[in-house]
Design brief:
heterodimer; A: alpha/beta; Rossmann fold; six-stranded mixed beta sheet; 7 helices; 32% helix; disordered C terminus; B: alpha+beta; ten-stranded mixed beta sheet; two-stranded antiparallel sheet; 12 strands
């Protein structure tokens, strides 16, 4: 998808503002950020700092007011709604705080969902889905509906759904926000595994410093501005 | 396949809500079908009429009789292939509630003009031989449990006195629309009695039934017949049998318009109920639709889900309503007896019921589908949080 020398995500002069009651409310101001392929980045900051907005822009589910977001060399800010939907289907895996599984579908069917947008046959879809469920150790619960699973298990199904189509990028919005510490640790361990073993690029929003510590790199936002970047936890580089 | 599975699961996610919506649809589609069948039944006489028959009556009013000697003169008109006549008897069988049409007819000529009244040769002969004999339609016989050989007493209202007739035959209609609710008696028997009791009323005919071979000449033949009696004491008005029947229906035109309007209003009401259900459904699933869009599903997928679910509910409810219409119509027909000569749910009505269910399904999903296809993903995802 991209040149190994180039960052997977290149954000330049990115600004985002919302219109509320006729007023222009800035949320992100002049953001510059590069994320290398295979990186695991934690976006941190207080509520209202713009970290979720930045994640949404990177994931292609929101549009910037100005600036560029190049992912794998594609400026997604210039894509139409339809092109963006196709791009997301091919390149992004989503993990949400509240799992966002479809309650009428089993764990298997939820994981299979993104594959319906690919040209895979039913047999191929089944193989991929079972492999993804095996990765999160939920093969034995594949016929269970979300309300028959614990929060941690639901989040693991969501992780399987995020990785089943082998996306370039996984975005996680507070993935442990609705889980107890122990279950949260399990989920973070899983993300860590995806990053280290499968080389998946992960961008994660979190409030929790302990969760952020599992990332290779931390980025801090305050009032829509990138204030500092913590040293790379593995290499010590900034 | 997957989308069908998802549609089914979504449709029955709230079982009570879906069931109540379907019950509403069943009632609405069934009521729509029944009301339309009532209107159809009103027009059954018109539909059952033949294009090879004309009716000649007094130009002043149907209540004014025509002289018996008109028959021979009408028969001589070019294009006329047969002639018969009938008088409205207007008798009461036990009570006024047991209303059914009774006509005094000339049996040989009348049955020749009405081949759709199917009677066995033996019964036909028995009827011809017995001047006090009558024949009735199957529906009428079934209603009162009459059998051939029974005696039927009628209290005359136009022709006073109690008249006792012998049932000599029961005819079956050649088609479903054939009237099986009438009683036919001998005109000669009636006329003979009237001549004795009220000589001035004898030899009078209510209407002439004129047989023609070429329906396309109906207007011309009607004109010829009426010209024959122009400036006479009893001028005539000749029209096709369907126009004659339609003149009765037009008397209750306002009621029919009202019934048609009510049947449409019922469909509109269920459309509003269904639209409300689909709007509630869409609002509840806002986050799910946002998730699907985030995963890369196009807005058209969300549109398909909503239209599919709405159509599925509408077609199941509509289908059950249609199926229920048939026994209900039969029950209704049995309850009202011979009020309608024919009461059948037509193919057109069933087709319209399906169309009504489809329209309800489509219209109900239109607004939520449009709205959900345009939801902002970020706002939609926040709906959960």
């Amino acid at each position: 998808m991209s040149n190994p020398q180039e960052p997977l995500i290149r954000i330049r002069d990115l600004s985002k503002s919302y219109q509320r009651g006729g007023q222009d409310i800035p949320v992100l101001l002049d953001i510059q950020l590069d994320v290398q392929a295979g990186d695991f980045v934690a976006l941190m900051g207080p509520s209202g700092s713009g970290k979720s907005t930045l994640l949404n822009l990177i994931a292609g589910i929101d549009q910037p007011t100005s600036g560029r977001i190049e992912i794998g060399g594609v400026d997604i800010a210039t894509l139409s709604e339809g092109q963006l939907a196709d791009w997301r289907a091919r390149n992004v895996g989503f993990i949400f705080q509240f799992y966002n599984l479809l309650p009428v579908l089993t764990a298997f069917e939820n994981v299979e969902l993104p594959l319906l947008l690919t040209g895979l046959s039913a047999r191929q879809r089944r193989e991929h889905t079972l492999a993804a469920l095996a990765m999160v150790k939920l093969e034995d619960r594949m016929d269970h509906y979300p309300n028959e699973l614990s929060g941690g298990q639901q989040q693991r199904v969501a992780i399987a759904r995020a990785l089943v189509s082998d996306p370039t990028l996984i975005v996680a919005d507070e993935p442990t926000g609705d889980l107890d510490r122990h279950t949260g640790e399990e989920v973070l361990g899983l993300l860590d595994e995806l990053n280290r073993k499968l080389g998946k690029t992960i961008v994660m929003v979190t409030h929790d410093p302990k969760a952020a510590a599992r990332a290779r790199r931390m980025v801090h936002l305050e009032k829509g501005v990138l204030v500092d970047e913590a040293p790379d936890l593995l290499t010590g580089k900034t | 396949m997957f989308i069908l599975k998802l549609l089914l699961k979504n449709a029955f996610r709230h079982k009570l809500r879906t069931t109540l919506t379907m019950v509403g649809l069943v009632v609405a589609i069934c009521a729509f079908g029944l009301l339309r069948t009532i209107v159809d039944a009103w027009y059954a006489g018109v539909e059952g009429s033949s294009s090879t028959r004309l009716v000649t009556r007094s130009a002043i009013s149907l209540t004014f009789p025509l002289p018996l000697n008109y028959g021979q003169r009408i028969k001589s008109v070019e294009g006329v292939s047969g002639i018969s006549w009938s008088n409205w008897f207007g008798g009461v069988y036990i009570t006024e509630r047991n209303f059914f049409p009774q006509f005094a007819v000339d049996p040989t000529t009348y049955l020749a003009l009405y081949p759709e009244f199917r009677l066995s040769d033996a019964e036909r002969l028995a009827f011809m031989r017995d001047r006090q004999g009558v024949i009735v339609g199957r529906k009428l016989a079934d209603k009162f449990g009459w059998k051939v050989g029974d005696q039927i007493p009628l209290r005359g209202t136009i022709y006073p006195g109690t008249w006792t007739f012998n049932l000599r035959g029961i005819w079956d209609g050649a088609e479903a629309k054939t009237d099986e609710s009438q009683l036919l008696m001998h005109w000669s028997y009636l006329n003979e009695t009237v001549r004795k009791l009220y000589p001035k009323r004898a030899d009078a005919v209510g209407v002439y039934i004129v047989g023609i071979n070429e329906p396309q000449n109906a207007a011309l033949i009607s004109q010829r017949v009426d010209e024959l009696f122009k400036n006479s004491l009893a001028e005539t008005l000749t029209e096709t049998e369907s126009a004659f029947q339609l003149s009765f229906v037009s008397m209750s035109e306002a009621i029919l318009v009202a019934i048609n309007a009510v049947s449409l209003i019922i469909v509109v009401i269920i459309m509003a109920v269904m639209a409300n259900t689909m709007t509630m459904t869409a609002r509840e699933r806002l986050a799910e639709y946002a998730t699907l869009k985030a995963l890369g599903f196009a807005p058209s997928f969300v549109v398909k889900l909503l239209f599919g679910e709405s159509l599925l509910i509408a077609l199941i409810g509509g289908g059950l309503g249609l199926l229920l219409t048939l026994p209900l119509a039969a029950g209704f027909a049995s309850a009202v007896g011979t009020l309608f000569p024919s009461f059948h749910v037509s193919g057109l009505t069933m087709g319209l019921q399906v169309v009504a269910a489809l329209v309800v399904g489509l219209v109900a999903a239109a607004w939520p589908a449009w709205k959900m296809s345009r939801i902002d993903i970020v706002q939609g995802l926040r709906h959960v949080a």
